[in-house]
Amino acid sequence: MPENESPRPTPTTPHSPTVTEHGSFTHAHCPCGWRAPARRSRDKARTDAASHAERP
Question: Contact at 8 Å (CB) between 16 and 54?
Answer without folding.
Answer: no
